[in-house]
Amino acid sequence: MREKQIDKLKDYKYGFTTDIENVRAPKGLNKEVIEFISKAKKEPKWMLDWRMKAFERLKNLKEPNWQKPKYPKIDYQDIYYYSAPKSASEKPKTIDELDPKLLETYKKLGIPLQEQQRLNGIAVDAVFDSVSVATTFKDKLNEVGVIFCSISEAIQKHPELVKKYIGSVIPLTDHYFATLNSAVFTDGSFVYIPPGVRCPMELSTYFRINASQTGQFERTLIIADKGSYVSYLEGCTAPMRDENQLHAANVELVALDDAEIKYSTVQNWYPGDEDGKGGIYNFVTKRGLCKGTNSKISWTQVETGSAITWKYPSCILQGDNSIGEFYSIAITNNHQKADTGTKMIHLGKNTKSKIISKGISAGFSDMTYRGLVDISSKAKNSTNYTQCDSLLMGNKCGAHTVPYIKNKNPESNIAHEATTSKISEEQLHYCQQRGLNPEEAVGLIVNGFCKEVLQQLPMEFAVEAQKLVGISLEGSVG
Amino acid sequence: MEEQLKIDFEKLLEKSNFSKKNIEIKRKNFNNFIEKGFPNKREENWKFSDLNQIISKNIKNLSFYNDLSKPNKIDQSTFIAGLEHNKLIFVNGRIEKIEFDYEEKNNIEILDDLVLKKPNNANNSLLFLNNAFVSKFFKLIVKKNYSFKKPLVIYNITNKDLVSKSINLKFDILLEENSSLKLIEFSNDKSTTNFININYNFDVQKNSILKNYKIDNNSNSNIKYYFNNISQDTNSVSEIFLLSSGSEFIKNEINCNLNGKYASAFVNGVFLLNGSKHHEIKTNINHLVENTKSYQLIKGVLEDESKAVYQGKIFVDSKAQKTDGYQLSKAILLNDNTEFNAKPELEIYADDVKCSHGSASGSLNEDSIFYLMSRGLNYKEAKKLLINGFLLDVVEKITDSEIKNLIKNIMSLKQ
Predict the structure, then answer these.
(1) Which of chain B's termini has less CB crowding within 10 Å, N or C?
(2) pTM for the predicted model, two decimal places
(3) Residue A382 in contact with residue A375, Cβ under 8 Å?
């Protein structure tokens, strides 16, 4: 038995649980639980009212069911909506005061905070089971006026900003999972970059689901004021458990005039075991609003984990001359399923968007690219370029492309290309001839296939992502 | 509308003498249609064209019973000139003439009054409607080793007498081994605001060749739906060309199953739209076995407030290794209020395949116009030349030279 567990651990590097006492809200989804969450976060009344409004709305909504990967019905009453490590109720002031066990967890994850503080110059806002426990580099960010804190802190300290922007990109009345998040979100990051400031470092959060039977409902809000720039990194991992866990986060980005936001994700949630048991349901709503003229939002994602990934990081190009970009690598192996892509909604004049999507499926997995390019009649002179390529390994897996292209403007141009292929025998043979074993050869070819997207990632992430690509495909050859 | 449907359905059963078996099937289909109604945009297949809305907006007091007892006059002027051909003539949904002057009679067979089959697509309510209301359903059999000497033209003519009616026609066409058929469907409508629902079923057996050209060119206010189901056996070829231009609304749906090795399917189409016309082409190419091939090319030129939709799907089964699938759709939008929507879809379960699709839409290239104008053409001529070149690309794919010339003439692409 023990041996079996150890074997499992080998397969999933991040599959350990940390033994820390949790404070949990009672199981289930009801008014009391939402009040409990709001009270635990010491939220003002307007926030609670907002949550309640979402909860009311949720009663009339149905779960969407048009997606390709089907999943068993989720019992929303059987989930803990709030769970916080006990020691966090008195928040530590410096990193040295942190629970050493927590620190160890991060070390295993490969983000030793102290190290990173010194070496990388990355400020980390680590989310550990819904409550942000450590935030580094605050002072340096304070100097330039950047606000980088947990969303609960922002609700208390900067209510005017939160009030103005929360729900402005993903409204309360959006689809089921977004509304569910609005009602029960527990924590997440808040970033505000003041006008004209170029954020001096890459901002980063690390999400992690620890307690079993909890859903993770973060809410991230990033606002880049006029002429500012920020690059934000998000990494996700979760321990191994037999039951499926739900992750339904909302991420809202707002870019004002001349501002630029770069949002990168490396998602490596637990994908379930080789037979498809367990794993995370990653149903995330990510949407960016290019509100001002000349603004730019760029999404980069590397999706290797989760039993089911179902997300479409989108851009609403409202401001004239605004730019939206989407770079994605999605890899599915064993019984993983992914239905991912983007939406580019062109509203302003001279808007531009670019979509590069690379999908790789192996084993018994199923991968779908689903995207929308919508050019409204007012979006004069706008352009879109889409390229989605799929790579198949074996004939038990599937790769699908479902683009929706709507053009209502004669002065706009849309181009879309897609290909599906497999790794050719010649390429493999060539690599093997030069001394690589088959797995290394596949790794090399796949990395080449993904290069266009990997290039978009910040340096530190790119290395990790490259390794992840290799790990995810282990055992898929032969 | 439901009231009207029930009255008309009973009237149809009363006036015609269907077999007991057929009445039973018709009732089933009728009930299925009543339950589902006309499709609307909530159905994925009809996302871009809400038929229910289009019908209620364009047709007042739609009725479903069509009196076929009296013969209609055939207007000879609608015939295709300069092309020797066999004729099947329908006027207002009634068969008026069957003429196979150029063929060997013992090598073809025409059956009617057949037992209906269950529609193979359970989600398509229009097939239910068709089955419930079709009065006579025809089957054409092309015998083994026989090739049609001249093309067969099916004329679908409607005249002024037909107003706000629903017409349902159904054809089965069987091409036995080593046979071939060139089929032109030619519509000519002088009627107003009818709903025409035509269902074709092609069975293309080993080594057979089907060439099917659908021409809808003269302007009219009818709403049309064509469903074409094609199943292809080993080494068979199907070639389809669609000229989608005349009617107020048309949806051409093509469902092609490549069941035998080395079968190939070609679908080419042209949208040529103006006014408030709204046309759609939807294809479903299913690669079910090894070594099959499909090729699709759709181009559109849109003027005024017209709207074109292309939904193309390539499905590759896990058994269908070595599939070659290609799909390209392009549109030129000439006015501010035109709209082109595309959904080029790939669903692939096999790894050793070559599948790609592309889609592009936009305006005419100003640089090209400038180039032509600098060579002495005026703006209008330059534009026309570019558009003709754009469309000619599709027309040139037609493999039969006689019919290619005919279609070039109809589209006035000839200089």
Answers:
(1) C
(2) 0.85
(3) yes
